């Protein structure tokens, strides 16, 4: 029975942290959102992980405003906010660059003509390549 109670406590805390995270994101400037996440809540102290010391310093100035806003959103138990630097957060939040290379219609026409003249397996591959005109290239990496 103790296991069930412990699981219920963990589930309840997880739900509370998720709600706090959503309210925190709503209270923050959009530029800051990808750089922070709710990490823990212990004894009324909300621990927020940030991707760098620079973001921790910036958020430090907003601490009282954030605390007041979160209390007003249904978390009166909050007594303080701590910011902890977590460099892993920046790696998790980093957006992967997108490849915007496109095959022009003219290049597609040329590949199609070449494919018809060559034929065979290479011709089929060129036809598939020509069909990619106007679509982003998903096959190559931009690293």
In words, what does this structure look like?
The protein has 143 residues and is α+β, with helices and mostly antiparallel strands. It folds into 2 domains: 2-93, GMP Synthetase, Chain A, domain 3, CATH 3.30.300.20; 97-138, no CATH class. The protein contains 6 helices and 3 strands, in the order H-E-E-H-H-E-H-H-H. It has a 3-stranded mixed beta sheet with strand order 1-2-3. Strand 1 and strand 2 form a beta hairpin. The termini are far apart. It comes from Ferrimonas balearica (strain DSM 9799 / CCM 4581 / KCTC 23876 / PAT). This is DUF721 domain-containing protein.
Distance N to C terminus: 52 Å
Spatially, the strands of the biggest sheet line up as 1-2-3
Q: Do you know the CATH architecture of the largest domain?
A: 2-Layer Sandwich
Largest sheet: 3 strands, mixed
Question: Which labels suit this protein?
Answer:
alpha+beta, 3-stranded mixed beta sheet, GMP Synthetase, Chain A, domain 3, DUF721 domain-containing protein, disordered C terminus, 53% helix
In a few lines, what is going on in this structure?
The protein is an alpha+beta fold and 143 residues long. It has two domains: 2-93, GMP Synthetase, Chain A, domain 3 (2-Layer Sandwich), CATH 3.30.300.20; 97-138, no CATH class.
């Amino acid at each position: 029975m103790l296991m069930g109670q412990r699981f219920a406590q963990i589930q309840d805390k997880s739900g509370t942290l998720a709600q706090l995270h959503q309210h925190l994101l709503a209270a923050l400037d959009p530029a800051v959102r990808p750089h922070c996440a709710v990490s823990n809540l212990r004894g009324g102290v909300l621990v927020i992980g940030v991707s760098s010391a620079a973001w921790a310093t910036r958020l430090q100035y907003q601490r009282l405003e954030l605390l007041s806003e979160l209390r007003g959103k249904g978390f009166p138990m909050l007594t303080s906010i701590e910011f902890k630097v977590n460099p892993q957060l920046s790696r998790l939040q980093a957006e992967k660059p997108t490849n915007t290379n496109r095959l022009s219609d003219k290049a597609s026409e040329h590949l199609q003509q070449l494919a018809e003249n060559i034929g065979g397996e290479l011709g089929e591959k060129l036809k598939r390549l020509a069909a990619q005109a106007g679509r982003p290239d998903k096959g190559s990496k931009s690293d």
